[in-house]
Amino acid sequence: MPEEIPDVRKSVVVAASVKHCFEVFTQRPTDWWPPSHVLVRKERAGLAFEPFVDGRYYEWDVDGNEIAWGRILEWDPPHRLVMTWRINDHWQSIPDDDRASEIEVDFTATGSGGTRVELAHVKLHRHGDGAWNIRKALDGPDPGETLARFANAI
Fold it and tell me: Based on the structure, what is the number of domains in the chain?
């Protein structure tokens, strides 16, 4: 059995409805996706989520070449999204989910009319020998670059 590696969980609270947060996250990823997180070799032209289970979330370059970041495992608007994360320990794309970890994103209403957005990297052991290095890179200060950019986009 592979070594257990603790999940990395980050969260941010924003002054927007759960529905709006889910829509921005899934329909406007170019508004919050970190510009350094790129898998295509040429200039990235776009990012998209296919809004259904087994859909992809992917990017494409200026020539139309596509690379999938992963596959949608749960699509429960506006509350939850779970997807695979197809990268290796060198932060490069892998072609399938055999060694992919998972990302869980939960959108929960707060008492103040806002939304708590939690992004969790789970099943990191699936990345193999480099899994601890990936965890270390992800486990910086809250809320992390992705959620900080998301909060700014809201």
Answer: 1
**85 belongs to a structural domain:** yes
C-alpha distances in Å from residue 73, one per residue of 8, 50, 93, 141: 19, 11, 18, 27
Task: Give the H/E segment covering residue 57.
Answer: strand 56-61
| DSSP H or E segment with residue 132 | helix 131-138
Phi, psi for 132 (deg, rounded to 5): -65, -35
Is position 18 within any domain?
yes
Q: For the segment 82-123, what is each residue's pLDDT rounded down to a tens digit?
A: 999 999 988 899 999 999 999 999 999 998 889 999 999 999
**Domain containing residue 82:** 8-39+70-153
Q: Give the closest residue to 16 by CA, choosing from 144, 120, 118, 112.
A: 112
Domain assignment present for 77: yes
Q: What is d(CA 54, CA 79) in angstroms, rounded to the nearest whole number?
A: 18
pTM, two decimals, is 0.94
